[in-house]
Design brief:
single chain, 259 residues, alpha/beta, 2 domains, five-stranded mixed β-sheet, two-stranded parallel sheet, 16% strand, globular, binds zinc ion
């Protein structure tokens, strides 16, 4: 009798613990998909010397938190047009010495799932005390641009709010780096790409800075989730700085700035 009672107690205990874990996972996932923009948003930035070069090391040593304030300012300014007063703060952590798991080249669902699990574990291991609990952690993989002409695509996960951002380690690239960081950040808050994945060409109308412009081309600005300014229906160029980039209605809706 006693033994039976004991085993049913442990069974209940285990079920309760499992239920609690499930509730925590569900609440976290719900939060990741429903950002409350009324409260301040903190983004942790962790620089990584991705090519282990001296040039990249020097560049990382020269970074300071103020360098990223322009992105916060830009987002706040863009949010204003949707009457969404937001507060965004970028917190620069220390350099992370372990490289993030390599993003798979293939489109295999299993490989991507396996990478995403390893990346979450990595992000959990690498988190630093930056004084607040960030809503997003971005690992900034810097590369010496003399040795790397083209960088692989950056990736950010909404569920888990983590991302790897590939950037050039050169101050003359800082303005374009800011576009890439803002783009990946908004992916983590639910924004989708607004360009054709096979050609890189901004999609009409949602990928254009001003879809109502007459004549339509060449566009003067880019939409952040396209990143490129459409010069014609088939040609585009990367925007130079956030000054040439807008956040339009579809993206605003996806991230919850617009209901
Ligand atoms: Zn993207």
């Amino acid at each position: 009798m006693l033994r039976a009672q004991k085993s049913s107690f442990w069974k209940m205990f285990r079920v309760t613990i499992l239920l609690l874990i499930l509730i925590i996972v569900a609440v976290n996932a719900w939060r990741d998909y429903h950002q409350n923009w009324q409260t301040p948003v903190f983004v942790a930035l962790y620089p990584v010397n991705a090519d282990q070069s001296i040039v990249t090391a020097d560049y990382i040593a020269s970074l300071n938190e103020q360098d990223f304030a322009a992105i916060a300012h830009y987002l706040q300014q863009q949010a204003q047009q949707y009457h969404q007063p937001i507060q965004v703060y970028f917190k620069l952590g220390s350099e992370v010495k372990t490289l993030p798991p390599k993003v798979p080249d293939s489109q295999s669902i299993l490989e991507i799932m396996w990478w995403s699990l390893r990346f979450r574990y990595y992000a959990w291991r690498q988190q630093q005390d930056i004084g607040v609990r960030p809503q997003l952690q971005l690992f900034l993989n810097y590369y010496d641009m003399r040795a790397h002409k083209v960088l692989k695509h950056s990736t950010a996960l909404q569920n888990g709010r983590i991302g790897v951002v590939n950037l050039f380690a050169h101050h003359k690239q800082d303005n374009q780096n800011q576009i890439v960081i803002a783009h990946e950040m908004l992916h983590a808050f639910g924004a989708t790409d607004k360009y054709d994945l096979s050609t890189g060409q901004p999609v009409y109308p949602q990928g254009l800075g001003d879809p109502d412009q007459q004549p339509l081309y060449p566009q003067k600005t880019a939409e952040l989730m396209a990143g490129h300014i459409a010069l014609s229906a088939t040609k585009s160029k990367m925007a130079n700085s956030l000054k040439d980039v807008r956040i339009n209605v579809e993206t605003a809706r996806e991230i919850g700035w617009l209901k």
